[in-house]
Every structure is written in structure tokens, then in C-alpha cells.
What does this fold into?
Amino acid sequence: MSKSKLISIEIKGFKSFDSVGQKIFLEDLTVMIGANGSGKSNFISLIKMISFMLANRLQYYIQRNGGAESILHFGSKKTNQIECELVFSIESSVDKYSFVLSYAPTDILFFENEKLSWQGNFTREEFELNSDRGKKETYLNSNENIFHKNKYISKTVSVLRDLLKNIQIYQFHDTSLEARIRGLNRIDDTLFLRNDGGNLAAILYGLANSKLYRAYYDRIVEHIQFVFPEFQDFVLVPEKIAENSIALRWISKNSEYVLGPHQLSDGSLRFIALTTLLLLPKDLHPAVIILDEPELGLHPRAISVLAGMVNSLKSDTQLIIATQSVNLLDEIEISDVVVVEKNAKTNSTEFKKPDINSLKEWLDEYSVGELWLKNVLGGRP
It folds into this structure.
């Protein structure tokens, strides 16, 4: 099966993106750099909103994030609509999905417009999904007969829904004592790695006990050993008391004593989760992986290994990374970088690709990370 790819996203009126908007073109690997408050997190927040939309929970997302006034760019008096367009390529076709959310005085957003299009080698179809205005949740989940009148529309709705669901954000920042990643996992929770690593032990157990996937497990262990020399292996056995449950137990090279997940440092646990995600079999990966500041709490050596895994994976799985790590940037090609900045005049987020031709002489002497530190690339406070 051909690799699907998210080609571009255009955003208008959402949080730090003004009504003029920004369009970001995405590569196999896109690394977003920028100062705190530049808009990297707002880009990721938009993707989160779309995931809530697909679960018919848009209104929950809105209220959870402070209401419509907090989501619109400087509130409804300045901005009364959010517009977004996502463009995908899959096999020989290009699929587009766009929506417009409008403000209502009850501090909610409703669907003013939803459109999709499909373009193949010889065929192009465009369709407006919403037959009426004011719907509070997406038409992508609708069972209306109107979708089945045209085979292209029906297929495109299904494909686009799957493509959107296959954009997954991973953030393993919560490694507190109460975090799900440190708790018991249901042993059969192995369909995919959860966004917070809450089923990490179950995923590793599934890989370790599969003839098809055992080599992937061994590779994960080798990478962990390289960064965490004390680590020997996981001890992945079902719990005796908590039936059908498993915990992230492990042993060190210096002792046969079995250690628990609460005896892993925050950085070690995050690296284990990242390594498992990036080294999973291809058929267990989503189409697009988004990592939000994956360098948090990692040793420079771990960041270097992380960068190596990212660069190896990008030919099979599309990755979008938001980072402030100079060490990570040092391992990234300049062509994969997008600079995120706040425009001082409009007070809105802008995406910029570095001008590689104008940076040739700089790149002969400095790494990408060093150029960012020197503010040659922009994206610094």
C-alpha cells in the first residue's frame, strides 16, 4: 500500500493565527522551531481539536479550552470564524478537507461549512457536506444517505475520516507517580500505543511474545541499553493478583532483583516510550506522528539517538516535531526545518522556511542548532 501523506495545513482565526492565516507545507519530516509563545503549541492544539471533532466532541473541546472566545484569535470581536484546510496525498489521488467554524453568542462554535474534494488522474469531485448551517458536530460521522448517492463522495468521506484519525499526537511528559505510563496495563491493550504511553507495558509484552514482531522488541531493548547502560531487559509477565494486567517491570545488569516502573527516572521512562513508538513495526504506526518537545528531560546522548530514529523512520512514516532542542536540531537537515515566529505588527503566528541558498556559507561552518542559537534562522526570543 502506498504511503499517505499530509501535504499541507492552512489555519485561519485559531488562537494565535489571525484571519489572514498561515499555510504550512509538510515534508516527510517537519521540525518546527520557535520561541515560547510563537504558536507551535497552537498548531498542535488545532490537531487536537480535529481529533475531538472526529469523536463528535468538538463542543467538549471548546468548553474544556475556555470557550469559543478563548479559541478565536483575540476573541469574537476581532475574529468570528475559524477556517482550516488539510490536503492529503494517497496513492495517485489528492484529498482535501476544509471546514469553517462560526461563533455563536452562547460562546460556542458551529459548522458554517464543511467541504471535501477528491482528485485522481482523470477525475475530480468536490462536495459540500453540510446541507444545513448550525450543526455543532462534524458531518464526517453522519450516516446521511446523501453520502451514498455518489461513489466518489462516499469513498472520499471514508478515506478522509481514516486519514484524519491517523494523525496522532504523542506527548510522554507526564511521568508523575500517578501517570498511566507507570501504572498497570490491560494485557490485551495492544492495538496501538496510546498517546500518553498508558499501555506501554502491554505493547512491549505483545512484541516480545510475537514470532512476527520479536525482532522489533530486541531492537528496542538494544537502543535502551545504549542510552541507559544499567538496563538489562524488561520483565514482562502478567500480574498474579491483578488478573489480565501487566506492569513495566525490568532488571538491571548489576542485579537480578526485579524493579518496577516507579524505579525508572522520568527521562529514562520518556526515552523508553519514544523508542518503543519510533521502532514499532510499520503496520502499528499511524500515518502521521506528531511529537511535542520530545527532548524534555533527555540526556544529550539520548537526544542524538532519538534524532537517529527519527531520520530512519521518516521514509516510512511522516513526522512533525515541535522542539526547542539545539542538540536535536544539530541532527536535522535544514530542509526539514520550519521556523515559527510571532509577527510583531499583527501579533499573529507565521511559518517560514529557511532560505537554504542564502545559508550555504553559514552551513559550511555551523550546524543547524548553532545557526538557531545565533538567531540566523529566526525563531528566537
Notes: The mean pLDDT is 92. The chain has two domains: 4-169+333-368, 171-330. Residues 171-330 form a domain with the Rossmann fold fold (CATH 3.40.50.300).
